[in-house]
């Protein structure tokens, strides 16, 4: 708008001058009392006001309609129908946010159209040159660096901000540029979660009070796990979008190189996990030394974690562990895939949280010296089989401290308890006596004191219990079975 108003050859006189920085699409000329149906927005509307003679209150509706379709300004030819812009028109323009300027009698409408066309053509040529320069700079950055950081930093100069984030919303590169605050990670993370299921074909354009964010997946094939985010302070032009498209293509090639290197490392890591959990620490260390990624050091005291779940969740969990520098490998058959990781003994809970955030079930094995992880691997498997929807993370060591009942499957334990104690259910005193008898290690005197009955009564009840169960309470196995049944009946199993 400023380019048009400041053109000395036109001699335009601003009256309401609040939208100088607005972009213009075209110039339209109309004498209709309602030209809004024929406009698309972004125009300057030129009129002589031929049909507006005698208007007072009608100006408000006229301007309101133009504002609603996005007209930027009205150019009124003066010294014709109106010697000067009517006060009601000026007031309506201020009210509805539409600029107003006078067109001198000597200035023809076609001259204004020609001037704007010339400005738009120069702007387009400038944008094209700028886009070519940006694309050339991006290509040079891509050739100059193996890592994409230089390319993303160069891209930030096209807009106001550029960054690369992971599928989980973690910032991996950047944000670069003069306006890093444009990266609203919460909003971008939500957008990535929405478009990720659509793969590499999906993208998002997000508007905010601060500007516009373009979000694009990176990669050539497979499921994307990195996204390019570019922020602009205002409207995004075609040339800028073209530059972003070029950057996405270049970064996607870099992403494929990174993935190929990562897959090679992952094969090494999976084999290293198999070796270290079978006791061959030396060979595992040799393999880890051949990895092209960050060096992973094996701890002296370690714990094995085994995780299961959908393939996509296993992939996300593995990516989280890799970012944390934890050794992880894929094992198991195709129908029962597992993710196995080896971490510091004091880092097991943290690793389990990362895996749980990916939607997996996790068994934590018993901590062991690094050369003796077969035990930790086995107990992690036992713990994994004890996980449920309500208890997705089970630690074998914690289960041992809580006792064997915490390791017993709840429904099976309940069925066992119901069947075992069924012969006694008709006489509640017998169930009570059995519990006291087991707590006091078979002391009839202590049971009598506990229940407030005579010692002979206790003896008769014990004999009755043994008769109904057809088992002797002197047998340690019977006492164990009875204790498990009673605890389960009281809600102890799985607690």
From TrEMBL:
Pfam families: HTH_30, PucR. Residues 430-487 form the PucR C-terminal helix-turn-helix domain. InterPro entries: CdaR-like_regulators, PucR_C-HTH_dom, PucR_C-HTH_sf, PucR_dom. Residues 3-119 form the Purine catabolism PurC-like domain. Signal peptide: none annotated. This is PucR family transcriptional regulator. It comes from Nocardioides cavernaquae. The lineage of its organism: Bacteria, Bacillati, Actinomycetota, Actinomycetes, Propionibacteriales.
């Amino acid at each position: 708008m400023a380019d048009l108003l400041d053109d000395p050859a036109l001699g335009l006189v601003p009256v309401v001058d609040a939208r100088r920085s607005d972009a213009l699409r075209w110039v339209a000329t109309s004498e209709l009392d309602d030209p809004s149906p024929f406009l698309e927005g972004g125009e300057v509307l030129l009129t002589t006001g031929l049909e507006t003679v005698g208007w007072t209150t009608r100006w408000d509706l006229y301007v309101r309609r133009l504002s609603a379709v996005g007209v930027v300004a009205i150019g009124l030819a003066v010294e014709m129908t109106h010697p000067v812009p009517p006060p009601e028109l000026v007031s309506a323009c201020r009210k509805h946010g539409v600029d107003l300027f006078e067109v001198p009698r000597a200035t023809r409408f076609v001259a204004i159209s020609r001037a704007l066309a010339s400005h738009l053509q120069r702007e387009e040529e400038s944008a094209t040159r700028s886009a070519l320069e940006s694309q050339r700079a991006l290509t040079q950055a891509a050739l100059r660096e193996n890592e994409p950081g230089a390319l993303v930093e160069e891209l930030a100069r096209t807009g106001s901000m550029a960054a690369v984030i992971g599928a989980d919303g973690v910032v991996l590169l950047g944000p670069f540029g003069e306006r890093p605050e444009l990266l609203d990670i919460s909003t971008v993370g939500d957008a990535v979660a929405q478009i990720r299921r659509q793969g590499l074909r999906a993208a998002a354009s997000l508007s905010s009070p601060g500007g516009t964010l373009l979000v694009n997946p990176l990669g050539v094939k497979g499921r994307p796990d990195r996204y390019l985010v570019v922020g602009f302070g205002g409207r995004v032009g075609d040339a800028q979008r073209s530059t972003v498209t070029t950057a996405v293509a270049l970064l996607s090639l870099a992403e494929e190189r990174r993935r190929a290197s990562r897959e090679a490392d992952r094969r090494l890591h999976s084999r290293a996990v198999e070796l270290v959990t079978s006791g061959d620490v030396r060979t595992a260390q040799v393999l880890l030394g051949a990895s092209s990624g960050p060096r992973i050091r094996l701890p002296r005291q370690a714990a094995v974690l085994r995780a299961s779940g959908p393939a996509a969740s296993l992939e996300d969990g593995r990516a989280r562990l890799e970012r944390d520098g934890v050794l992880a490998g894929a094992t198991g058959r195709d129908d029962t895939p597992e993710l196995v990781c080896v971490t510091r003994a004091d880092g097991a809970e943290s690793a389990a949280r990362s895996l749980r955030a990916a939607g997996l079930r996790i068994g934590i094995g018993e901590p062991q010296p690094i050369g003796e992880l077969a035990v930790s691997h086995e107990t992690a498997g036992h713990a994994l089989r004890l996980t449920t929807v309500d208890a997705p993370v089970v630690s074998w060591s914690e289960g041992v401290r809580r006792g064997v009942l915490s390791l017993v499957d709840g429904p099976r334990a309940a069925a066992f308890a119901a069947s075992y104690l069924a012969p006694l259910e008709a006489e509640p005193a017998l169930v009570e006596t059995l519990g006291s008898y087991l707590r006091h290690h078979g002391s009839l005197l202590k049971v009598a004191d506990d229940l407030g009955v005579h010692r002979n009564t206790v003896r008769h009840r014990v004999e009755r219990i043994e008769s109904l169960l057809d088992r002797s309470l002197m047998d340690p196995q019977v006492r164990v079975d009875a204790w498990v049944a009673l605890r389960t009946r009281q809600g102890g199993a799985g607690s």
